[in-house]
Every structure is written in structure tokens, then in C-alpha cells.
Amino acid sequence: MIYDLLAHRSLYRPISDRLALGLDWLAQFSPDTPDSRIEIDGPRVFAMVQSYQTAPAAERRFETHRDHIDIQYLFQGTELMLCAPVNTLKVAVPYDEAKDAIFYEDPADSTAIHCVPGSFTVFFTHDGHKGGCAYGRPTAVRKVVIKVRV
Predict the structure, then answer these.
(1) Confidence of residue 111 (pLDDT cuts 50, 70, 90)
(2) What is this structure's pTM?
(3) Would you list the domain boundaries of the chain?
(4) Whole-number pLDDT of residue 57
(5) Beta strands in the chain (DSSP E)
(6) How far apart are CA 76 and CA 33, in angstroms?
């Protein structure tokens, strides 16, 4: 798992060409972009621009992905991201190939990350994560989730 500001993206470009492509695309991203799915490199790297209201953490679910790394970039609002190693999680909903997701019960312990505009997280396939959680009271959020095929 990585948490940093997009201004520091060059530190992470060497990890993989596809990850670098996603981070570079974010650097050129316009906040005026409407909610949509945008192909960056066909099905290998694509972005999903999203707007939603955060909710109490109890209303969100932990998840992992088998086929994609998530880059989650917040450009409006604030949210809490919870994360935990996959080996500490108990499966609640088995793998759904169409969603590329496994959902989990809440673990006894997790790490909370307060995401603010300009920050991004990278969740690898072994990183359980739960996004969209309210930091304090629910708030409107706009963010981009980039899916990077492994």
C-alpha cells in the first residue's frame, strides 16, 4: 500500500510502466471531467471518475482485487480509507470475476488513512481496503480510481 501526494508521483514511476502511466495521466487530469470510465491504455489501464457521499465505515466493505491494482486519487472532499493485509481478513463474499472483487468482514484491526485533495493511495492485490468512509460526518467526494491490470 502506498499513500502520498500526487506531487511525489515520480518516486513511484519505477514500480511498473502501467502504474507510471496511470500516475502520469492523473497529473494531467482535469477536475472538470464528468463522472465516466476513461480508457488510458485499453483494458490494461483505465480510469473511473466518481462522485459520491461518504458514509460511516460500518456501511462500507473491505475488498481486494485479483486482476487489478487500484490507484485512488482524491480531488474534492475528504474521506477515510481503511486498510488491512489480506491474510488478516475473513471472506464474506467470494470472488466475483465480473467485479474483480472479493469482499470481507471487518477485521479486528485496520489502519486508517485520512485522504485529502491531492493525495493518492495505491492498493496492490494483497491490500485489503475499504474506501468511501466518512472522516467525521459524511461529505461529498470526487475522485478517480485507476485500475491497473497486473
Answers:
(1) very high
(2) 0.96
(3) 2-149
(4) 97
(5) 2-5, 36-41, 45-53, 62-64, 68-76, 79-85, 91-96, 101-104, 111-115, 119-123, 127-133, 140-149
(6) 13
Q: CB–CB of 60/132 below 8 Å?
A: yes
* 39 residue type, one letter: E
What cell does 20 get? 507510471
Q: Rounded to an integer, what is the distance from CA 9 to the centroid of its chain?
A: 15
With a CB cutoff of 8 Å and minimum separation 6, the contacts of 8 are none
Residues forming a β-bridge with 119: 5
> Is 2.60.120.370 the CATH number for 2-149?
yes
**Contact by Cβ (8 Å): 70, 123:** yes
Each residue of 4-57: pLDDT tens digit? Answer: 999 999 999 999 999 999 999 999 999 999 999 999 999 999 999 999 999 999
CA dihedral over 64, 149, 8, 14, signed as positive or negative: positive
